[in-house]
Design brief:
Elements (H helix, E strand, L loop, with lengths): L10 H10 L3 E5 L3 H9 L4 E4 L3 H4 L12 H14 L4 E5 L9 H13 L5 E3 L5 H11 L4 E6 L18 H17 L3 E5 L3 H10 L4 E4 L7 E4 L1 H4 L17 H18 L13 H10 L12
Helix pairs in contact: 2-4, 5-6, 6-7, 7-8
The structure holds 3-methyl-2-oxobutanoic acid.
Length: 296
C-alpha cells in the first residue's frame, strides 16, 4: 500500500486534537476548487457529504436520492485536491442499510475508486454492526447520530433529536456503541448543547457538532451554507461567513448586460492578427474591407 501523501492529517493526530482540546474544523466540499479552498484555510477534515443531493444535484429537502456513482464522482474530485485534510466520503442511503457485506463493498469503493481516506455512515442500532465490519476491513469510519437526514421521515422530519432525558440517554448509548465498534469520530447533528457536551465527555473519540452547541470537539458546516450559496430557509445553527449568492447574481447580471450591450468583449479580451495575414485573408475571400473593421 502506498503511504498517504506527506502532510495528510492522520487519525492519531485527530485523536490528539481532542486530548489537547484543539478544536477540529470540518467542512463539506463537493469539487476540487472547494477542496483547495478548504486546504488553503487549514481545514482539518473535508466531508464529501450526501448533502450534495440538495446543494449540488438539485434535489429538494432530501439527501436520499444521491447514488453511489454520484458520490464516488464527487469524492474523486475532492480527493484529488485535498492533500492535508482528511477526506471523508459520505455513504449514501441504500449503500449500507441492507447488509454488512454491502457496507464493506461500498466503503471499499470510496477508498479504492474515489481516494477517500475514510467513510461516514449514519445512525447507531443496525449501523453499529456495519461500522464494525467496515473497520475490520481496514477502513476508518466516522459515525453520525442525532438528526440523521437519511432517516428524517422516520424521525418525524428535520427536527432536533435527544430533547427528552430518555431520548438523550439513547443518543449517548448509541454514540458509545459506535465508539466501541471502532468509529474514529462521531458527528452530532441537531442535538441540544448539553446533550452534545455529555456525549463529548463520555466518548474518547472526537465529536463533531452541527447544531450541537460549543462543547463538541469540532464543528462541521455545509460549504454552501458557510459561503452564503444556499438560498431559502436555513437551519438556526448555520452561520454565514459570506454572501456569495449575491456576488454571483450581481456578476452574472453584469456579464449578461455587457454581452447584450456590446460592452464585452473589449479589445483586451480578443486575439489580434498580423496585418499582412489579414490583408491576404481579405483578398483571398474577395472582401472589400477587413473583418475586424466591420460593424454590425
Ligand atoms: O452530508 C452532510 O453534509 C453531512 C453533514 C451535515 C454532517 O452529513
Amino acid at each position: 500500500m502506498s503511504a498517504p501523501p506527506k502532510g495528510k492529517l492522520s487519525l492519531p493526530e485527530l485523536a490528539e486534537m481532542k486530548r489537547r482540546g484543539d478544536k477540529i474544523v470540518m467542512v463539506t466540499a463537493y469539487d476540487a476548487p472547494g477542496a483547495r479552498f478548504a486546504e488553503d484555510a487549514g481545514i482539518d477534515v473535508v466531508l464529501v457529504g450526501d448533502t450534495a443531493a440538495m446543494v449540488v444535484l438539485g434535489h429538494e429537502g432530501t439527501t436520499v436520492p444521491v447514488t453511489m456513482d454520484e458520490m464516488l464522482f464527487l469524492t474523486r474530485t475532492v480527493a484529488r485536491a485535498a492533500r492535508r485534510p482528511l477526506v471523508v466520503g459520505d455513504m449514501p442511503f441504500g449503500s449500507y442499510q441492507v447488509s454488512d457485506e454491502d457496507a464493506v463493498r461500498n466503503a471499499i469503493r470510496f477508498v479504492k475508486e474515489a481516494g477517500a481516506d475514510a467513510v461516514k455512515l449514519e445512525g447507531a442500532g443496525p449501523s453499529v454492526s456495519r461500522v464494525r465490519a467496515v473497520v475490520a476491513a481496514g477502513i476508518p469510519v466516522m459515525g453520525h447520530v442525532g438528526l440523521t437526514p437519511q432517516s428524517a421521515t422516520m424521525l418525524g422530519g428535520f427536527k432536533t433529536q435527544g430533547r427528552t432525558a430518555a431520548k438523550a440517554l439513547e443518543l449517548v448509548a448509541g454514540a458509545r456503541e459506535l465508539e466501541a465498534a471502532g468509529c474514529f469520530a462521531i458527528v452530532l447533528e441537531a442535538v441540544p448543547a448539553p446533550v452534545a457536551a455529555l456525549v463529548t465527555e463520555r466518548v474518547s473519540v472526537p465529536t463533531i457538532g452541527i447544531g450541537a452547541g460549543p462543547a463538541a470537539d469540532g464543528q462541521v458546516l455545509v460549504y454552501h451554507d458557510v459561503l452564503g450559496l444556499s438560498e431559502g430557509h436555513l437551519p438556526r445553527f448555520v452561520k454565514r461567513y459570506a454572501n456569495l449568492s449575491r456576488e454571483i447574481r450581481d456578476a452574472l447580471d453584469a456579464y449578461a448586460a455587457d454581452v447584450r450591450s456590446g460592452a464585452f468583449p473589449e479589445e483586451q479580451h480578443a486575439y489580434a492578427m498580423d496585418d499582412a495575414e489579414l490583408a491576404e485573408l481579405t483578398a483571398a475571400l474577395d472582401l472589400d474591407e477587413p473583418v475586424r473593421a466591420r460593424k454590425r
